[in-house]
Amino acid sequence: MRRKSAFWILACIVCSSLQLTGQTSGFFVPSDTLDRGRFHKALLFSGVTYTGFSIGLYHAWYRNYPQSSFHLFNDWGEWRHMDKIGHVYTAYIQGVLCYKGARWTGLDEDKSILTGMICGSLFQTTIEIMDGFSKEWGFSVTDMGANILGTATFALQQRYWGEQRISLKVSSSPATYSSDPIYSVDGLHTSSLNERANSLFGRSFAERYLKDYNAQTYWLSVNVKDFSGNSGSWPAWLNIAVGYGGANMFGGYENTWEKESHIFKLSENSFPRYSQFYIGPDINLTRLGLKSPFLKTLATVFNIFKVPAPALEINTRGQVIFHLIKI
User: Degrees (nearest 5) of the Cα angle 170, 175, 177?
Assistant: First the structure.
């Protein structure tokens, strides 16, 4: 309930702000020169967002777990590396959006790239530091490496190509889990896949979208037109995307968990953990030729998601599967 309330409150604040500021002519058009009014607004918005995010995250998550002295934590290999790819993606997206915000204020290209790098790193590093003081987890060097890789993916493309020819995107198809009883190793207690999924990934659509690694796919969406020298008849908005996902993951490393002092273990034959690789078309929303600055802004925001489309899956179980629509 708290997460839903916070989400809708934030959405209302953002919408109200857009309604008020959007009345100014050309609000969504980036400034050619530094607009100090915009710069101060962006600085204030970033500061409030960062402070609210940090305080909210601590009270919603870390406060519920015991604290400790700063320490390291090795989580390499968890969730078949889906967590690490998620860090790359998040840092990349934060870098892109913060860069766009900086350009909107009129900052020049180099300063805007630097702003994207700093902001993209700041949010992620804050989480890692909080992890470092949590007894339950710890500071993950590999997470930080993934964060740096995501920020660098944005910054290097923007610096040397002046655009994002390769975009990182995410998709998540809602997964349903069986409520059939699963017996503990000692046969004295029952659970189910649905119960385990609720415990791991949450119950709401938003929680499942963000946390269910079995439902997520991360994509590298390549703009073919950019790499072909803008020649030929290939549409500027049509990308080719390659994706990575995983399935049958009900624990970080293995499908074993404890409930009320009873151990549950899924059979590897019935629930094999495996990786999925995809290839298929994608739409670059920023290349649709939109004229409205407002619609261009929306296209930039929603371009962080992969558009549902046909895809070919090759997985580590040796299967080749065609998906008419991969969500």
Answer: 150
